[in-house]
């Protein structure tokens, strides 16, 4: 079965950095577009970023463009999200998402990893 396991979240000060990882199994990772979605307390899900199968093309929400970088290692079946210049508004539960192409809705998500940006 499809499994997506996120890690790397934590508490960081404004301006700091974190790198999230997502270990994927149960499907052909290298043939699948992948993405990240986040959900802040009391708010709906927000699509953050996505990457194509080979990693040559990426897309970002305007709110994170220039600060976050999505990447993947198909040999390790792992998706990453490098987050720099973090702001308190980035505080959320971050989910790895399996996407059908560039469709942001996704069909599977992991359990999420918490990112808290606070001084």
In angstroms, what separates the terminal alpha carbons? 40 Å
Total strand count, please?
11
Report Rg: 13 Å
Specify the helix fraction band: under 10%
- Number of helices, where a helix is a run of at least 4 consecutive DSSP H or I residues: 0
Largest sheet: 7 strands, mixed
Residues in β-strands, percent: over 45%
Given the helix and strand composition, which structural class is it?
Answer: mainly beta
Low-confidence stretches: none
What's the helix-strand series? EEEEEEEEEEE
Structural notes for this entry:
The termini are far apart. The chain is 0% helix and 50% strand. With 119 residues, it is mostly beta strands. A hairpin with a 6-residue loop joins strand 5 and strand 6. It has no helices and eleven strands. The strands form two sheets. Strands 2, 4, 5, 6, 9, 10 and 11 form a seven-stranded mixed β-sheet that branches. A four-stranded antiparallel β-sheet has the order 1-3-8-7, with no helix packed on it. The model has no long low-confidence stretch (mean pLDDT 96).
Question: Which secondary structure elements does this structure contain, and how are they paired or packed?
Answer:
Elements: E1 3-7, E2 10-12, E3 18-25, E4 33-39, E5 45-51, E6 58-60, E7 68-73, E8 78-83, E9 92-99, E10 108-109, E11 113-117
Parallel strand pairs: 2-11
Antiparallel strand pairs: 1-3, 3-8, 4-5, 4-9, 5-6, 7-8, 9-10, 9-11
């Amino acid at each position: 079965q499809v499994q997506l396991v996120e890690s790397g979240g934590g508490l960081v000060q404004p301006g700091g950095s974190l790198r999230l990882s997502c270990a994927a199994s149960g499907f052909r990772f290298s043939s699948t577009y992948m993405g990240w979605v986040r959900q802040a307390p009391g708010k709906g899900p927000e699509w953050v970023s996505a990457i194509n199968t080979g990693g040559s093309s990426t897309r970002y929400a305007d709110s994170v463009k220039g600060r976050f970088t999505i990447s993947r290692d198909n040999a390790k079946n792992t998706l990453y999200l490098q987050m720099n210049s973090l702001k308190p508004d980035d505080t959320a539960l971050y989910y790895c998402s399996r996407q059908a192409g560039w469709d942001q809705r996704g069909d599977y998500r992991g359990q999420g990893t918490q990112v808290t940006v606070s001084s």
